[in-house]
Design brief:
single chain, 345 residues, alpha+beta, six-stranded antiparallel β-sheet, 11 helices, 13 strands, 33% helix, globular
Length: 345
């Protein structure tokens, strides 16, 4: 994972800053317009290419969309933000997700409606042997049910699962996890980066009229040997042209990882511009259909593209809106976002 950076140093050393007086002027405009100290300005909007600075959601506006009770239903959020509940609900409602192989609450493991009490390494090895034998998988993806940003995720490989279980036994019986199949990524995306599943983030909004709108879309990529693609874990993101289903020309790291802009993957050298995402239309349709099952008014969906089409990996009730600001040039350009803010302010 790339080293973390001091955000202040990233700002001070950035070679493409606006002039000092322009930054002061714009920050002052935002202070009066948004009625809050515009700390967010110094994360991204200080750059010369950040032209439409008034169109970016402020931190206060982002929090309104992420947490306002008129937008979010607590009962639906309890499903959306828990990977186990989401997987079980998706299975019941025909939402295509990675196959659920089992889960655990500390030493109590469940698989195929059977419960196992894990008391030692041998019984845990037997549990995973059953998965490898009956489900015919080469690896199991292990995720905490409630963590974000790819934190705590790892794989248990069939080739060395005994060593992994012996090493991580205390972790596996003292924390909660969800076990799913390791999916196969579409070969065209593997050409950009094969070491992680590089997912789409599609953000949906239910309008006051009840229609479902996609307000932003971007793709996350892992770097190096990391198995996760999250920007908050050292990966980066590239905006998607929703009309064409193609990548924008520039990728972005978050400020805490240097805030660099790139036009090709640092490992493969693959250029992003105009890369056509396979099954993008189907991915958009999958999120809109999923909203019918989980009608929260604001959701971020993580979608993987496989050789057979999109899979919904997970959902997020409080998606990272600063990233959406960057890839859209400001979410306030979107009529549906502006209308929703007017509705709840």
């Amino acid at each position: 994972m790339p080293a973390k950076h001091n955000r202040l140093k990233v700002f001070l050393k950035h070679p493409n800053k606006k002039s000092f007086f322009k930054m002061i002027f714009e920050a002052t405009v935002l202070l009066f317009k948004k009625k809050e100290i515009p700390f967010y300005y110094f994360k991204y909007l200080y750059r010369k290419d950040a032209i439409d600075y008034k169109d970016h959601l402020s931190l206060g506006e982002q929090r309104l969309l992420q947490y306002h009770p008129k937008i979010h239903n607590p009962e639906i959020l309890s499903v959306i933000d828990n990977k186990l509940f989401f997987s079980l609900t998706s299975k019941e409602n025909g939402i295509r997700t990675p196959k659920l192989l089992g889960y655990n609450f500390k030493s109590t493991y469940t698989r195929n409606n059977k419960t196992y009490h894990i008391s030692d390494i041998k019984t845990l090895i037997n549990f995973f042997e059953d998965i490898f034998e009956k489900d015919k998988v080469d690896a199991v993806f292990v995720r905490p049910p409630s963590d974000y940003g790819g934190k705590g995720c790892f794989k248990i490989e069939k080739s060395n699962y005994r060593k992994t279980i012996e090493k991580d036994f205390h972790l596996l019986v003292n924390k909660n996890f969800v076990f799913t199949e390791v999916i196969k990524q579409h070969e065209s995306i593997n050409k950009i980066h094969p070491n992680s599943i590089n997912t789409l983030r599609i953000v949906t909004l239910i309008t006051a009229k009840g229609t479902v709108e996609i307000i932003s879309a971007f793709m996350r990529f892992g770097v190096g040997d990391s198995i996760v693609d999250n920007a908050s874990s050292g990966g980066f993101f590239v905006g998607i042209n929703i009309k064409t289903g193609t990548l924008q020309s520039q990728g972005h790291y978050l400020p805490e990882f240097g805030g660099e802009q790139i036009n090709k993957h640092p490992d493969s050298g693959y250029e992003f511009k105009d890369f056509k995402i396979p099954f993008f239309k189907e991915a958009c349709e999958a999120t809109i259909n999923a909203v019918e099952t989980l009608p929260n008014r604001f959701i971020g969906w993580d979608i993987a593209i496989t050789p057979k089409g999109p899979l919904v990996i997970e959902s997020n009730g409080q998606p990272h809106l600063q990233i959406s600001n960057i890839v859209t040039g400001g979410l306030l350009k979107n009529k549906h976002v502006k209308d929703l803010l007017l509705e709840i302010k």
